[in-house]
Specification:
With 296 residues, this protein is an alpha/beta fold. The chain has a domain at 2-133 and 222-295: 3-Layer(aba) Sandwich (Rossmann fold). It has helices at 72-86, 101-110, 137-145, 150-166, 168-179, 182-188, 191-204, 210-215, 247-254, 275-283, 285-295, and strands at 2-8, 14-21, 26-30, 53-58, 92-97, 115-121, 233-238, 258-263. α4 crosses α5 and α4 (150-166) packs across α7. The longest helix has 17 residues, at 150-166.
């Protein structure tokens, strides 16, 4: 396990990434959510999730130790191609939950030839009347106003970053009590899950939350033409997800080739305990059997 590796990209920016699992295994790229960081995957239950796979988990721009750039989403597919080239990887599987979803979809649009499979869970998507159904009111307001009031969003994230450094447990409790569904509160109340967040928060906010601030502007200025994504995308949505609302279903409906998986009676944090299950379905049972045999 290597959690702090650096790549200097061709645009002069620095990317930081972690690796988990079998260094000679089937490559799987994982993009974290918002907030989040490369180290989160090593803290989740069952990490590194499956035998015979190599997990590559980069910090997204403005999070952790990957430098921020103003056009982060549009440049991300090229950044990931550079990372794959640097690691000697031609094709790979790709999965992203929540705020990482748009970045996975950008790759599916721009570099589909490099993807063996691609999936998203509870992905953020375009802001429409239908897509935000079910999302909590503060988030809908934030998405709607983030571009016009970006200076205030950055200030809010600076305050959260300061708290993340000084008292991450307090920040965690505030988010848990104010933003989560009852289902998610039950998961978040477990000590081992709380530890994931309190460990990740200081790393996620190293750059004063600029990555998080940027991400909340995306729904209202969506630039990914979903109808032009030709590769198959597996889209998971939790039925009681109040942190992404109906965005995943909206995305699946717009994609020419999608598989939509609705998970009943669960919320946004379901994914923390089910990454293994998602990757099994994404990579395929027969492929998993082969990887398991090779691993033995």
């Amino acid at each position: 396990m290597k959690t702090e590796n650096f790549l200097w990209l061709s645009d002069g920016k620095t990317m930081c990434y972690a690796e988990y699992g079998d260094p000679w295994g089937e490559p799987v790229f994982l993009f974290h959510g918002n907030p989040g960081a490369r180290i989160s995957w090593g803290l989740y239950p069952d990490s590194p999730f499956l035998p015979g796979i190599r997990i590559i988990a980069p910090d997204r721009p403005g999070y952790g130790r990957t430098e921020y750039k103003k056009d982060a989403l549009e440049r991300w597919p090229n950044d990931i191609s550079e990372l794959a080239d640097h690691l000697g990887i031609d094709k790979f599987h790709l999965f992203a939950p929540s705020g990482g979803g748009p970045y996975a979809l950008a790759c599916a649009w721009k570099v589909p030839e490099r993807l063996k499979s691609v999936g998203v869970f509870g992905s953020v998507g375009p802001y429409t009347k239908d897509s935000v159904q079910g999302a909590n009111a503060p988030l809908k307001l934030l998405w709607r106003l983030a571009n016009k009031l970006f200076f205030l969003v950055k200030l809010q994230n600076r305050i959260m970053a300061r708290l993340a450094r000084k008292d991450p447990a307090r920040l965690f409790r505030a988010i848990r009590d104010l933003e989560l569904s009852e289902y998610d509160k039950q998961i978040a109340s477990r000590k081992e899950i709380e530890n994931v967040f309190t460990t990740v928060f200081p790393e996620s906010y190293l750059q004063n939350g600029i990555g998080s601030a940027y991400d909340v502007t995306l729904p209202k200025r969506w630039t990914i033409p979903l109808d032009q994504i030709k590769c198959k995308v597996a889209v998971w949505q939790a039925e009681q997800d109040i942190l992404a609302g109906n965005m995943a279903k909206y995305i699946a409906d717009q994609l020419p080739n999608s598989e939509f998986i609705l998970i009943p009676k669960v919320g946004h944090l379901w994914i923390i305990e089910h990454v293994k299950e998602v990757l099994e379905r994404l990579i395929g049972h027969e492929e998993i059997k082969r990887l398991d045999l090779d691993h033995q």
